Structures are given as structure tokens and as C-alpha cells.
């Protein structure tokens, strides 16, 4: 048995795997229960957001004119950001929302947050199929290194899950973290080149562009665009010559998961009496 932060890691036991599977299925069914469109909304939501951003930033403001297939890159960035947004927002209040379950059953509380993240990952994978189809229709030539994309999805999952563990832990004690996180998300969105190309930032300041790409979300987004859209998308390892520095966002993603898991595990035994 592995022990982290004083809490036994029992997630892989059969009874806990069953509980995780049931939570994922239940959350997925309940999310769009009573909706006429049902599960279709999981695809329509990012597409509708993309449509608005495309009209405003691509058609009117002419963002990405120097980047091949920027509209596809914009759609890809939208669905990747949507995963991070959905995972962290829903996970934040997940422990409180599952208070009755926590008080009745003894199980690793990490399962609750993980179930939220897996649901978001299902939505992301469905959306990525739409992105790839959209890209092929627009004549995108996928890189021969596209097989590395799953590794980037894993990195995104790790970073998002780490943040989710931290938020869920803080939310149990301080409910005010909700509106604060909304503001932080807005700041992070503008610090991530989702709606604008990195070249736009480089034209203003190359130093700022380098700092920007040290953000794991920016690094993941640009790496994915490089692999799935066009090799003209600037990545952290193209802009920063120092290989050790270019590894910073990858290291941050791993450390975020480890720290988030540790903090969550250390406090999870107190959740039932605090909710």
C-alpha cells in the first residue's frame, strides 16, 4: 500500500474502482438531464464559444493572419481551455456537494475529484474528434509527431487535477474561493494564447512571450497546435534556447499534481466534520 500525506492510496482497489465508475456515469447522465439536446451540448458549448471568438477575433480583428489555419488553432485552444475551466470549476465544490456521500461511506475522497476530471476528459475527447474533422475539412496536414498528443493531454490532465485538488481543499474551509477563482480564470485565459497568436506578443516583447510560454496551459496549447494544426505555431522549445528553462512548464505540471494531491490527502480526513 502506498502512503502519501498520511493517507493510504486505495483508489485502485476494486470497490473504489467501481465507485469511481458509478460516479462518472452518474455525473455524465445528470449533467444534461432534462435538456432537449442532451449530450449534444457537450459538443455545442465549445463550438458556440468558438463561433463568437472566430467572428470577433479572426474576422474583425484579423488575429492570426500570419498563422496557417488559425481558425482551427482557435477551436483547438477553445476545447483545451474548456477542459481546464470545467475540471477546476466543478471540482472546486465537488467535496461539499458530495457531503452526504462522504458522511455515509468510508472511501478515498480523491475519487470525487477524479470523477469530475474524467467526465471533463470524456467531453474533451469528443470535442477533439470535432476539431480533427474541422481541421481535415480545412486542409490541415497533421504532423507526423501527432502521436505525442496523448502525452500532452496527460500533462493537461495532471495540471488540471492538481489545481482541482487544491481548490477542492480550500473550498471546504473558505467558500469565498469561488468568486476569486472566477477572476483568476479570466486572468489565466488572457495569459494563455487561446484567442491570439504568440507572434502577436513577440512583436510587442519577446521577453514577455517567453514568460507567457512558461505557463503550462500556454505550453500545452501551443504544443498541441504544433502537432495537430501547423508547425508555424511557436512553442516554448522554439522560443527558448535553454533546454532546462524550456522544461519549466512540464515540471510545473507534475509538481502541481503532486502538491495538490498531498494537500488534499493531508486534509481529507477532516472533510466530513467540516462540511
Written description of the protein model:
The protein is an all-alpha fold and 275 residues long. It has helices at residues 14-31, 41-60, 70-92, 94-97, 99-104, 110-137, 149-173, 177-191, 198-204, 206-212, 216-228, 236-239, 243-246, 248-267, 271-274, and strands at 3-4, 7-8. Strands 1-2 form a two-stranded antiparallel ribbon.
How is this fold's topology laid out?
Elements lengths: L2 E2 L2 E2 L5 H18 L9 H20 L9 H23 L1 H4 L1 H6 L5 H28 L11 H25 L3 H15 L6 H7 L1 H7 L3 H13 L7 H4 L3 H4 L1 H20 L3 H4 L1
Antiparallel strand pairs: 1-2
Compact overview of the structure:
With 275 residues, the chain is mostly helical. 72% of the residues lie in helices and 1% in strands.
Query: Please, how many helices?
Result: 15
Largest sheet: 2 strands, antiparallel
Strand order of the largest sheet: 1-2
Mean of residue pLDDT? 88
- N-end to C-end Cα span: 28 Å
Radius of gyration of CA atoms, rounded to a whole number: 20 Å
Helix content: over 70%
What form results from the Cα inertia axes? Answer: globular
Contiguous low-pLDDT stretches (5 residues minimum) are 1-8
Question: What percent strand?
Answer: under 5%
Amino acid at each position: 500500500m502506498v502512503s502519501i500525506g498520511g493517507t493510504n492510496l486505495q483508489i485502485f482497489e476494486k470497490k473504489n474502482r467501481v465507485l469511481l465508475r458509478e460516479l462518472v456515469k452518474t455525473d455524465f447522465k445528470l449533467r444534461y438531464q432534462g435538456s432537449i439536446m442532451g449530450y449534444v451540448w457537450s459538443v455545442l458549448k465549445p463550438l458556440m464559444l468558438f463561433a463568437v471568438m472566430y467572428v470577433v477575433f479572426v474576422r474583425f480583428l484579423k488575429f492570426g493572419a500570419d498563422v496557417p489555419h488559425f481558425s482551427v488553432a482557435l477551436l483547438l485552444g477553445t476545447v483545451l481551455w474548456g477542459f481546464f475551466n470545467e475540471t477546476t470549476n466543478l471540482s472546486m465544490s465537488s467535496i461539499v456537494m458530495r457531503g452526504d456521500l462522504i458522511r455515509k461511506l468510508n472511501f478515498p475522497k480523491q475519487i470525487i475529484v477524479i470523477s469530475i476530471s474524467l467526465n471533463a476528459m470524456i467531453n474533451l475527447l469528443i470535442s477533439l474528434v470535432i476539431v480533427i474533422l474541422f481541421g481535415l475539412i480545412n486542409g490541415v496536414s497533421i504532423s507526423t509527431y501527432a502521436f505525442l498528443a496523448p502525452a500532452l493531454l496527460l500533462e493537461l490532465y495532471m495540471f488540471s487535477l492538481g489545481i482541482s485538488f487544491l481548490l477542492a481543499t480550500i473550498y471546504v474551509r473558505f467558500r469565498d474561493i469561488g468568486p476569486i477563482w472566477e477572476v483568476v480564470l479570466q486572468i489565466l485565459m488572457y495569459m494563455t494564447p487561446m484567442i491570439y497568436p504568440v507572434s502577436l506578443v513577440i512583436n510587442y516583447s519577446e521577453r514577455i512571450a517567453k514568460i507567457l510560454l512558461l505557463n503550462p496551459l500556454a505550453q500545452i496549447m501551443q504544443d498541441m497546435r504544433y502537432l495537430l494544426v501547423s508547425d508555424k505555431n511557436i512553442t516554448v522549445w522554439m522560443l527558448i534556447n535553454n533546454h532546462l528553462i524550456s522544461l519549466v512548464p512540464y515540471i510545473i505540471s507534475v509538481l502541481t499534481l503532486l502538491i495538490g494531491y498531498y494537500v488534499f490527502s493531508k486534509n481529507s480526513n477532516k472533510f466530513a466534520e467540516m462540511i
